[in-house]
Amino acid sequence: MYVIELSNKSKKFLGKLSDKDSDMILNKIYSIKENPLRHLKKLQGDKFWRLRIEKFRVIVDVIISGKRIIVLRIDHRKKVYN
After folding, report:
1. Three-state SS string across 52-71, please?
2. CATH assignment at residue 38
3. Total of domains in the chain
4. Domain span at residue 48?
5. In a domain, 82, yes or no
6. Cα–Cα dist 82/1, whole Å
7. C-alpha span between 33 and 35 (Å, rounded)
8. Residue 11 banded pLDDT, cuts 50, 70, 90
9. pLDDT over 90 (residue 8)
10. Model's pTM, two decimal places?
11. Per-residue model confidence as pLDDT tens digits over 27-82
12. Which distant-in-sequence residues (6+ apart) come within 8 Å of 23 by Cβ?
């Protein structure tokens, strides 16, 4: 099982969302703890991974040897890759 760590930037974004949206995002993030690579897609030309959650995208770094998932950024799908 992997440990989930949220960056300050992702915590700040979740704080701006409605309770419904932030709960949905957190539930999905914590649901991938068992087998994260099954749910994630590798970003082209980068070492990071993406998780799709409706209109939002979560950019994560997976450290396999340390069994950690670091949530780097959460944002709307139109803004997250800028």
Report:
1. EECCEEEEEEEECCCCEEEE
2. 3.30.2310.20
3. 1
4. 3-76
5. no
6. 31
7. 6
8. very high
9. yes
10. 0.88
11. 999 999 999 989 999 999 889 999 999 999 999 999 989 899 999 999 999 998 87
12. none
